Amino acid sequence: MADVLEIRPQESAEENAQQMTDGFHLVIDALKANDIDTIFGLVGIPITDLARLAQAEGMRFIGFRHEQHAGNAAAIAGYMTQKPGICLTVSAPGFLNGLTALANATTNCFPMILISGSSEREIVDLQQGDYEEMDQLNAAKPYAKAAYRVLHAEDIGIGVARAIRAAVSGRPGGVYLDLPAKLLSQTIDAVKAKQSLVRVIDAAPRQLPAPDSVKRAIDLLKGAKRPLVLLGKGAAYSQADKEIRAFIEKTGIPYLPMSMAKGLLPDTHEQSASAARSFVLAESDVVVLVGARLNWLLSHGKGKTWGNPKKFVQIDISPQEMDSNVAIAAPLVGDIGSCVAALVDQVGDDFPQPPKEWLDAVSEKKNKNLEKMAATLAKNPTPMNFHSALRVLRDIVKQNPDINVVNEGANTLDYARAIIDMYQPRKRFDSGTWGVMGIGMGFAIGAAVTSGKPVLAIEGDSAFGFSGMELETICRYELPVCTVIFNNNGVYRGTDVNPTGGKDVAPTVFVKDARYDKMIEAFGGIGYNVTTPEELEKALKEAIASGKPTLINAVIDEAAGTESGRLTNLNPQSAAMKK
Ligand code: ADP
Ligand code: TZD
């Protein structure tokens, strides 16, 4: 750390003057002291110089066209690395644009820090109408895991340290750090400043499970007749890949990955029960949740989806997660690596393997469903539909198993998740816990910058629209992102009509036959327009091999999608209207 803070000469260099530094420098020094090397953001008063300085001091500053996408990039960087991603914005509106991403990160348990410049406390608190005046700290609080403000330059080191620890320790989440303009220009004695820096030690300490909790879980598992393991994105985040694989393989229990946990073990693993999802959820009797919450994505652990009564083992770092929706018979609170390792320790050669009838039933169901899916995928309708296009993407990912996959939309999300096998951990990034649209280009940029590897962004045409302007960012930084737009002329599909016969199109309908490929050409990227699986395959191969910013406008049958994809049960009004 000795070389972190360079001492800068005072501007009015009087003889023997004390050497001074300022808030701008200290923020950068505090981040660098904690090995943070990238900032995603968008400049303006009062943080433009902060961004300039970050770059001048050797950090990477990735400038966006809208703060929400900078925030999403930071969030996904945090998820990939277990280090908080940093998003930097201006005050009030810029902050609010970033807040959506901060809230999404908190909801998904991604560690990130939103740093926003703010206007002066004296004016904000008396509501005297400052430039971009807003009480940002209080606005951020309900949507962040923690929110802090620093008022004195000597507290910058501690403020950054608190933000880092809050973001990554325990259940990860989004943290807001408020930096008023005056703080940034405050000067401080350089020696004192250097001493005020804090390097966070063991930011996310291991949290060991209690031995009696481990025993309770093992006893429950030993008595199971139809056990199932459910892996969530918390399991992927924890980077306990080896322990999780050992647990699955030693116990022989079938497992289901949640969307972003796909690839933690390759989806082609023989114990994967993905293709028999409904069957195993309904029929299992003991379910081990590993970093997965029983929220709406898992029907809250009850109802028809879950069929037979069952007992849950839940592994989570957050004690409050237990019993959130249904009773948890064996809570295992701790970090996933430690908890799973503790379970593996108890799984000796005498550990009972799941009964053969259960494994046979799962594989029979799985094979049947895989055959059905293969038949659907083999069809070649004209125009192309979701399935025939996704067959091509599935094969491309198989050939490029280390490619990062970003995915959003309704039908585009639901079908891609089911059809595209993943082979490596933390390579799939999608709409997540909220089912939010708009993560596409932000996640793509974050994933490309963080991994240095290519990204395939699979986007519904509506979903893409939320972040489409970031194509310019992708082109500006020459990122190897290939965006494929499933273009069916609207939200879900493009065939709705205005029942009044009026001039306005239906609420779900877009401009027909839009050419999204031309958008990327405006910024020097390469665009393709394809209408058949053969054309799509050729374009994809060329695009990925080029390593350049590319966009493929894949024309899909405008009648192919269903309303809300597979979420029709959450859309009762629409179902009623159609009656
Ligand atoms: P999914 O959407 O894939 O089902 P969720 O986001 O619902 O996953 O759940 C992730 C869970 O993982 C959260 O409850 C979070 O507290 C937990 N978690 C995150 N990181 C860890 C970790 N390192 N150890 C234990 N639990 C973790
Ligand atoms: N706004 C935000 C921020 N998130 C949302 N999830 C929605 C609106 C509602 N919404 C969905 O849930 S999916 C979707 C919207 C607008 C787009 C679906 O259309 P698409 O995908 O073209 O992206 P498909 O594949 O054609 O269904």
TrEMBL record:
GO-annotated molecular function: ADP binding; identical protein binding; magnesium ion binding; oxalyl-CoA decarboxylase activity; thiamine pyrophosphate binding
Pathway participation: Metabolic intermediate degradation; oxalate degradation; CO(2) and formate from oxalate: step 2/2
Catalysed reaction equations from the record: oxalyl-CoA + H(+) = formyl-CoA + CO2
Presence of keyword Cell cycle: no
Short name of one Pfam family: TPP_enzyme_C
GO biological process: fatty acid alpha-oxidation; oxalate catabolic process
EC number: 4.1.1.8
InterPro entries: DHS-like_NAD/FAD-binding_dom, HACL1-like, Oxalyl-CoA_decarboxylase, THDP-binding, Thiamin_PyroP_enz_cen_dom, Thiamin_PyroP_enz_TPP-bd_dom, TPP_enzyme_TPP-bd
Gene3D superfamilies, per database record: 3.40.50.970, TPP-binding domain
Assigned protein family: Belongs to the TPP enzyme family.
Protein name: Oxalyl-CoA decarboxylase
Organism of this sequence: Paraburkholderia franconis
